[in-house]
């Protein structure tokens, strides 16, 4: 029997570098106070997961602890954002006159950040992490997983699994929010279109 799998993917909360529109891939920055306060006062209306996987970067770890207090999780470097290399913590204004940066803006899927990660390398890493997660869920007969990660991995998954929105840049996720993919074991294992999906939004806690 082909059982159902539910994979909820959440983007980390707001950081000061996000607010300043800096590139933060592997740079390990914490949530800003506003980001923490927003998560503390909110909740995700989802069922309790069987397993939580978090990017090992501190902004995702902090998000996980605030959204799922008291629930154990597994940190993983595989679920990091793309590595922006020499452009980490830089802004568009810092880089806009550089020819290689302009080439990357025009073709980000084939041009790599200087000293950074290519889109191909990034994709291979994320799909290996996905395959490992699905294997784990099936071997343990788990049905619901949460992944706390970054905007890039979320875009990659969503543009693959939702057939009516197949373009990477069509997707955008608010901080602390994301989406849930409803798969069968087969569609998840074969990285095919999900059966359905739903957006996951933060809601204010009843006690404030």
UniProtKB/TrEMBL annotation:
<keyword id="KW-0378">Hydrolase</keyword>
<dbReference type="GO" id="GO:0043755">
    <property type="term" value="F:alpha-ribazole phosphatase activity"/>
</dbReference>
<dbReference type="InterPro" id="IPR029033">
    <property type="entry name" value="His_PPase_superfam"/>
</dbReference>
<dbReference type="InterPro" id="IPR050275">
    <property type="entry name" value="PGM_Phosphatase"/>
</dbReference>
<dbReference type="Pfam" id="PF00300">
    <property type="entry name" value="His_Phos_1"/>
</dbReference>
<protein>
    <submittedName>
        <fullName>Alpha-ribazole phosphatase</fullName>
        <ecNumber>3.1.3.73</ecNumber>
    </submittedName>
</protein>
<dbReference type="InterPro" id="IPR013078">
    <property type="entry name" value="His_Pase_superF_clade-1"/>
</dbReference>
């Amino acid at each position: 029997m082909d059982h159902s799998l539910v994979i909820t993917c959440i983007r980390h909360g707001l950081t000061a570098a996000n607010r300043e529109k800096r590139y933060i891939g592997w740079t390990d920055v914490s949530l800003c106070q506003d980001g923490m306060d927003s998560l503390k006062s909110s909740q995700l209306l989802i069922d309790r997961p069987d397993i939580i996987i978090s990017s090992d970067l501190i902004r995702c770890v902090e998000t996980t602890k605030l959204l799922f207090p008291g629930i154990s999780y597994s940190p993983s470097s595989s679920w990091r954002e793309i590595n922006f290399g020499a452009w980490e913590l830089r802004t568009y204004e810092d880089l806009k006159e550089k020819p290689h940066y302009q080439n990357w803006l025009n073709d980000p899927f084939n041009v790599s950040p200087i000293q950074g990660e290519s889109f191909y390398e990034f994709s291979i890493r994320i799909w290996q992490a996905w395959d490992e997660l699905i294997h784990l869920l099936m071997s343990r007969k788990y049905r619901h997983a949460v992944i706390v990660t970054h905007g890039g991995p979320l875009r990659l998954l969503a543009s693959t699994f939702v057939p009516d929105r197949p373009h990477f840049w069509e997707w955008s996720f608010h901080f602390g929010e994301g989406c849930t993919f409803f798969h069968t074991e087969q569609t998840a294992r074969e990285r095919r279109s999900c059966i359905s999906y739903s957006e996951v939004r933060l809601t204010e806690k009843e006690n404030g």
